[in-house]
């Protein structure tokens, strides 16, 4: 009689490394040896990191949970967020501000352990001159800042450092402790409007501040020490500021100023105090309306603009790089694609992107999806009124609208291509009291949107998914 070959544990691990999660779960039921192999942290870690590249490895390795538990919990949550059944989430109206909310951002990390201790924290700034932090799951205020001298207009959060950065209508920039709500540092610009982005590395971040008057400041974080100050444009409203995924490039522009080309700056030339001149390039396009950096590329810029020759609305994509040239370095903006935007019932007013080659446009109440070359991939008419905000991440798209609703879509892979699927609505308040939903944001376990009330105040509409 012949002998039956038995794979060693290492051999089983090698074979099982080619399996997906459902196959591993079935293999674990065969016998004790297969169960031991199929429960291996190595296999579930591989599955987790291949599906979610931003897994919080440190928390998992501390023994709070196993990689298998992490994978199964997070998959279940994604399934809940994709189907949107009423029993899968809790909706809360979070109120407390006495004015209009001008900005919202998550202070909690985008990573969760799914161990029953999850808490989403969002921060808001308002015309009532306060900064507040909220517990999304409980719908309660964590802390509120002291009353400020002017309306707060904008905010950024740095979750890994538990810091919040705000601007007010007098051009004052402040850094706050995210755990206590106490002021830490202040910098004054005397401008009525500031745009901000964070660049640099996690260990050495910088704040890039673009003023309405065309000036760009570079400040250290958290101390807000001035590193550089340059004039990007003369006497024009610099309303457009976008940062690349690798945090090495920024685009600045003035959508309301004709014949002003958008400019792209390399961050090193702004953060290096020994640099005499900023390194930048003016893009060869007409009036820039909006722009987005492709999230899966280090420096791919997608720009919505008017064609200088035809005056048609166009979308042009550039890849940015540094090019050595005669003992110096220049910026090269290589055009990747260009197309004229077709005529829709409403002019595009929001531009976002996904992956390396998908463009999303908000055109009135319609969401339009294009390829880089202009192929129409999808069109969604799920809202009854104009789209006010579009949130895009690796897994989903969420649109908010003046019709007081959110629409949730998910990315699906079909036949080696990624498509967007319309999933469900999340309803807001009553038309009797509300004007609509504005800015929307999302983490892995919740969605928040700013709801504007007819009395001029705002509240947060929060949707927490049950784990």
TrEMBL record:
InterPro entries: F-box-like_dom_sf, F-box_dom, WD40/YVTN_repeat-like_dom_sf, WD40_repeat_dom_sf, WD40_rpt, WDR55/POC1. Residues 12-49 form the F-box domain. It holds the Pfam family F-box-like. SUPFAM superfamilies: F-box domain, WD40 repeat-like. Keywords: Repeat, WD repeat. PANTHER family: F-BOX_WD REPEAT-CONTAINING PROTEIN 12 (PTHR44019:SF17), WD REPEAT-CONTAINING PROTEIN 55 (PTHR44019). This is F-box and WD repeat domain containing 12. It comes from Monodelphis domestica (Gray short-tailed opossum).
């Amino acid at each position: 009689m012949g002998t039956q070959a038995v794979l060693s544990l290492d051999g089983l691990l090698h074979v099982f490394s080619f399996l997906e999660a459902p196959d591993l779960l079935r293999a674990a039921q065969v016998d004790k040896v297969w169960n031991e192999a199929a429960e291996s942290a190595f296999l579930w870690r591989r599955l987790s990191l291949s599906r979610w590249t931003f897994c919080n490895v440190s928390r998992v390795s501390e023994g709070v949970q196993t990689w298998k538990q992490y994978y199964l919990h997070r998959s279940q949550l994604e399934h809940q967020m994709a189907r949107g059944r009423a029993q899968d989430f809790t909706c809360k109206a979070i109120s407390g501000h006495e004015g209009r909310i001008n900005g919202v951002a998550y202070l909690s990390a985008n990573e969760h352990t799914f161990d029953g201790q999850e808490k989403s924290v969002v921060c808001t700034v308002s015309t009532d001159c306060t900064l507040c932090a909220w517990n999304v799951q409980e719908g309660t205020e964590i802390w509120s800042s002291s009353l400020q001298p002017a309306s707060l207009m904008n905010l950024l959060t740095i979750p890994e450092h538990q810091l919040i950065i705000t601007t007010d209508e007098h051009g004052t920039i402040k850094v706050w402790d995210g755990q206590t709500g106490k002021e830490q540092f202040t910098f004054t610009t005397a401008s009525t409007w500031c745009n901000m982005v964070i660049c640099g590395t996690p260990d050495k971040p910088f704040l890039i501040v673009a003023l309405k008057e065309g000036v760009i400041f570079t400040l250290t974080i958290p101390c807000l020490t001035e590193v550089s100050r340059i004039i990007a444009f003369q006497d024009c409203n610099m309303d457009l500021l976008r940062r690349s995924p690798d945090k090495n490039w920024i685009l600045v522009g003035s959508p309301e100023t004709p014949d002003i080309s958008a400019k792209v700056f390399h961050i090193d030339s702004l953060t290096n105090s020994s640099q005499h001149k900023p390194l930048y390039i003016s893009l060869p396009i007409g009036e820039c309306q909006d722009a987005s950096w492709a999230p899966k590329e280090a420096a791919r810029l997608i720009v919505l603009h008017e064609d200088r020759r035809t005056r048609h609305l166009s979308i042009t994509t550039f890849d940015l790089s540094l090019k050595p040239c005669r003992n110096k370095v220049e910026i090269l903006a290589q055009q990747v694609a260009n197309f004229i935007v077709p005529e829709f019932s409403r002019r595009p007013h929001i531009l976002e992107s996904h992956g390396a080659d998908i463009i999303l446009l908000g055109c009135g109440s319609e969401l339009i999806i294009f390829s880089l070359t202009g192929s129409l991939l999808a069109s969604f008419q799920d809202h009854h009124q104009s789209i006010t905000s579009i949130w895009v991440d690796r897994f989903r798209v969420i649109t908010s609208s003046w019709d007081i609703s959110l629409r949730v879509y998910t990315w699906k892979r079909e036949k080696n291509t990624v498509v967007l699927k319309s999933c469900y609505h999340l309803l807001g308040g009553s038309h009797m009291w509300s004007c609509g939903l504005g800015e929307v944001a999302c983490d892995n376990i919740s969605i928040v949107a700013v709801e504007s009330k007819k009395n001029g105040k705002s509240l947060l509409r929060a949707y927490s998914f049950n784990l």
